[in-house]
Amino acid sequence: MEQSMNHNRVRMCVARLSLLLLSAVLLAGCGHKATVTELNIVPEPVFMVKKDGSYTLGANPSVCMVGLGQNSPTAKYVMKSLRSAHLHPSLVAADDDCDIKLVLNDTVNTEIGDEGYLLEVRPTGISLSANTEVGLFYAYQTLIQMLPADVLKVRYSSVSLPECTILDYPRFEWRGTHLDVCRHFFGAKSVKKYLDVMALYKMNKFHWHLTDDHGWRLPSERWPRLNTVGSWRVDRDDQPWGEADPPREGERTTYGGFYTREEIADIVQYAAERGIEVIPEIELPGHSSAILAAYPQLACDPDYPYTVAIGPYWPPKAILCAGNDSVLTFLDEVLDEVCDLFPSRYIHIGGDEAWKGNWEQCPRCQRRIRTEHLSGEEQLQSWVVSHVQRHLAERGKTIIGWDEIMGLEDGGWDISRPVKANNPLLDKDAVVMSWRGLQPGLDAARAGHRVIMCPTDYCYLDYYQADPRYQPPAIGGMITLQKAYAFDPVPMGTNSHVAANVVGGQANLWTEFINTPHHAEYMLLPRLLAISESLWSQRERKDWGRFRRKVEEQKDRLQAKGYNYCEGSFTPRFTARRVDDNTMNIAISTEVPNTYIFYTTDSTTPTRQSAIYLGPINLERGTHIKILPVYKDIERDSVYEFVIK
Ligand code: ACM
Ligand code: ZN
Hints:
By secondary structure, this protein is of the alpha/beta class. The chain folds into 3 domains: 28-168, Chitobiase, domain 2 (2-Layer Sandwich), CATH 3.30.379; 174-239 and 256-460 and 498-560, Alpha-Beta Barrel (TIM Barrel), CATH 3.20.20.80; 573-643, Immunoglobulin-like (Sandwich). The chain is 29% helix and 23% strand. The chain has 18 helices and 29 strands. Strands 2, 3, 4, 5, 6, 7, 8 and 9 form an 8-stranded mixed beta sheet that branches. Strands 10-11-16-17-18-19-20-21 form an 8-stranded parallel β-barrel, surrounded by 5 helices. Strands 1, 24, 25, 27, 28 and 29 form a 6-stranded antiparallel beta sheet that branches. Helix 2 (73-84) packs parallel to helix 3 (133-146). The radius of gyration is 27 Å and the shape is globular. The termini are close together. Mean pLDDT is 92; it is low at 1-30 and 409-415.
């Protein structure tokens, strides 16, 4: 079957906009009053019950705080956020009646733990309580999601909320979102916007991939060429990533940048105010073109003309020389700077895809293997990792590494080879991030490591999210929203001792094919919501049909906040069965239950007056079928065109 596409995004936007305008006009007619009846909270809370009553929040709500200082980050966040929703909150004393009451428990509620909360909407007012500030922050995120989606745009005089009780806490402590700022650089402002959407969906770890072949993004005073050289590459953004021409001799390096110390401090604080810990990743010993372009003396072959990489760079051959003591000094000093910049208990030290060809040829690396009585190059990587781990442990830090850090003789840079999960050189304190499937993580958990699951099959948000013929170029793969929703860091049947070591999971966003924040959002959303529900919500609270309905309401919310997102769930999927030489029987569906599919077979553009698909249809080969998906009365994204073959 062949297809071509008529991008009809503009039409969809017009449809959405007119719906929003229509509701705004209706609201204006009745004084911008809103009545909320449905709760579409993402991630799904542990316990939520709606009752018969309601509470009407006026435009000038009183807010009181019990146990929470009014200058605390959460208190300030709540007041600012209410103002951005066009409300005029006023702080009142805790013993007064108040519309919104924030309570930091003085007696710990053991049911909700460190991040959970209790939210109650009663006919007398709204109450949010938690054991910690972050718990209160999450309670407030839930409250925001109860308000109308367009509350940032429309000035409501009152919002009626249903009486309800929500008791909530996360399934996993590690709910990560990663961002690669090396393949493409994203400025501090867009990083903050990224953190905002993480916070909205209760994600709590920002894994900031700051160094790689394509650029070094950390400020360094001790090793300044990391910034003057390593942060910049030849600009090939006018060419598709996969086809970028190699740099020419003497060509200027104009693409890139790095964050200043002030920007990093600001981002770390901004994240902390949203319950997010920032974990920097410093890749070693591989993926180090940017380092070696700046300091070639740290390579096994210092005369090789290393450049900051552009475009596809595979296999990633640049590797630090493990036989050179200056490399250890370099790592120690750079990591000391990292420790100064990031308060996180964790430092991610990379460790993936370290190609060892240079080590095999390098006399210094071979000498190190002999003098340290190592079994070969793979164990030499473990030796480097151990050095770094000890150095960081002295500074109170715990390392995280990609699952290759478990590898001994096997594994290594070849991702198709298995990993042996018992590395005597690796301290059990090291946390393993399992990306080559769930198995390396389960093996590491069995060996006593704490594990974060981010298998490519479910968590790589640089993969396509719908039929590639209708999507902007991506790195490959296919993770639809439904597939991302199926992510479970602890598969059913996992031994409980192993399961206890799986601390959570993470969505990863590599940016080879993503060169603007706008496009990063498109790849992230709405799949982040699926990962969020997979990590926060209890397994038995997950329900694809309900989630999919909630996503629509959340998209309105995202749109109001200025986020870009993908409508890929509505891409038609076909199954074709041969009836006879000329005829095929075609079944059409989308990932979303209750999508109406309108179609034409006479080359005209389908509308809602066209034929509606009710079940498999027989079509002659050569027929052009054009499809318009409609969901909840909104035309979705595109008209899709296929030729029956
Ligand atoms: C990875 O995706 N190379 C961790
Ligand atoms: Zn070497």
